[in-house]
Amino acid sequence: MDYCEGGCVMRGVFITGSDTGVGKTVVGAALAWRLASEGLVVRPRKPVESGCVAGEGGMSGDRETYHAAVGGREPLARIGHYRFRAALSPERAAALEGRTVRLDDLIQACREGVGPGDFLLVEGAGGFYSPLASDGLNADLAAALGLPVLVVSADRLGAIHQALLTTEAVARRGLTLAGVVLNETVPGADPRMNNGVDVARWLGRDPVLIRYHKDADGLPTWRAIAPSLTAVVAALVTDAGG
Fold first, then answer.
1. Which of 78, 139, 150, 219 is the most exposed place for a label (fewest CB within 10 A)?
2. What residues does 151 pair with on adjacent strands?
3. What b/e string do you get for 42-68 counting C-beta neighbours within 10 Å, with b at 16 or more?
4. What sign results for the dihedral spanned by CA atoms 135, 121, 110, 68?
């Protein structure tokens, strides 16, 4: 079991993907917003991020999405501490900028500012076994924090294999599975494909299904999909003692 600043027992969730580009940030932001709406003090963390875009106000990326999801109540620098330009694994992107990020750095970045009663929401980068630091994978950070793991998989051909493989990897690390989200990232999926039913049959539990949304009714995507996460929110609130 991991601990936050001051020695309190940490509660929260670690969001990982079965692959890159599966919609982890959209799901994470929706979850952060829903949990905050339930009265939890949510501390979102994307401790390391690559592929950040340079603009007039500096680099922009996923941390800005989380910042919006919690109403700007968490400092940007705490949400996303290590940021790199190249759209590669964080380990490789850091090396290209002559920098090294170690697992202990990421653990500290996640814990910083998390107090008693807070809910820590951590999003990794890429898939569960993607390199996250010079000495660790996403799986290593998840194991170090000891949080339940929510697996996000793109709802497409190959999703069954990827979802089952990732959940098995989570179990091998001795971590609790918070759930599986099948996220429809593009419209027009083959109607004959029914990954939700097949994943449920092989996994033994129903995944959360998110249909394709993009700025529905003028809302950001994370707001549009938030109602789909009711079951995940209920389970996490119960586990958090809410």
1. 219
2. 16, 180
3. bbbbbbbbbbbeeeeeebebbbbbbbe
4. positive
Q: How many residues does the chain have?
A: 242
Span 202-229, pLDDT tens digits:
999 999 999 888 766 778 999 999 999 9
Give the bridge partners for 208, in sequence order: 181
- State both tokens at 114: 């998390």
Name residue 221's amino acid: T
In angstroms, rounded to a whole number, what is the distance separating the alpha carbons of residues 129 and 60? 25
Distance CA 78, CA 10 (A): 17
5-239, CATH topology level: Rossmann fold (3.40.50)
pTM higher than 0.85: yes
Alpha carbons within 13 angstroms on the beta-carbon side of residue 87 total 8
Q: Where are the domains of the chain?
A: 5-239
Q: Residues with catalytic annotation?
A: 46
